[in-house]
Amino acid sequence: xxxxxxxxxxxxxxxxxxxxxxxxxxxxxxxxxxxxxxxxxxxxxxxxxxxxxxxxxxxxxxxxxxxxxxxxxxxxxxxxxxxxxxxxxxxxxxxxxxxxxxxxxxxxxxxxxxxxxxxxxxxxxxxxxxxxxxxxxxxxxxxxxxxxxxxxxxxxxxxxxxxxxxxxxxxxxxxxxxxxxxxxxxxxxxxxxxxxxxxxxxxxxxxxxxxxxxxxxxxxxxxxxxxxxxxxxxxxxxxxxxxxxxxxxxxxxxxxxxxxxxxxxxxxxxxx
Length: 272
Description:
Elements: H1 2-19, E1 36-39, E2 42-47, E3 55-61, E4 67-71, E5 90-95, E6 110-111, E7 114-115, E8 127-130, E9 136-139, E10 152-155, E11 159-162, E12 165-166, H2 169-172, H3 176-179, E13 185-191, E14 196-202, H4 214-224, E15 226-231, E16 240-242, E17 245-246, E18 263-268
Antiparallel strand pairs: 1-2, 2-3, 3-14, 4-18, 5-16, 5-18, 6-7, 8-9, 8-10, 11-12, 11-15, 13-14, 13-15, 16-17
Pfam families: NAGPA (PF09992)
GO molecular function: hydrolase activity, acting on glycosyl bonds
Protein name: Phosphodiester glycosidase family protein
């Protein structure tokens, strides 16, 4: 626990620099000024790639020994991110799956080896799947059954970047309401080496910040080095907390946090 307390202190100091005086870091390429260290292996950046776009980015080194991914447990469904029991211990937490009124999740969801029951629209829900050793991939053709090797998994729709190809406006026209209109967004992706996990939250539905269309977002992420990515639940569900603090501004029509099906968390491993 000693290592956890040290990292938590470092993370809080980093956030103080990030958020103090309302001055967030400018955009920059990976490794350049503009990325702020939250914990060893976890960086944060805010970017404004074009007028009206407000993005929050997390980049996780999947080989960092002190960090691990976690998907909230089925018992946590139907709560806001900050109310979930596992939220307090998370370095970062973001919303994940689309869901129905019973908070059943779209596609495969696996939480530390536990496969969620009653998955929706599995065949059309590409997903992030990770083994216990944190070897992760984006699965574009989901199987009919969740493989035993999946330790954590979460699904969405549609894909944004596939084998290095970003979606184009013609792709968005196949799902115009979801894809070709400006909405708040949550996205998860990997670089070509599958070493770094990217989490992106786009603000929207507030004055001057309408949200983003998928194709331009995909093309921008591909230019940053994202090789594969999938769209998660967005709109009023999109939310990001780092060390317990909400970083993404809420939509004007939905100022309160929304109850969601599940969440993707980044947590510190206890020191040996």
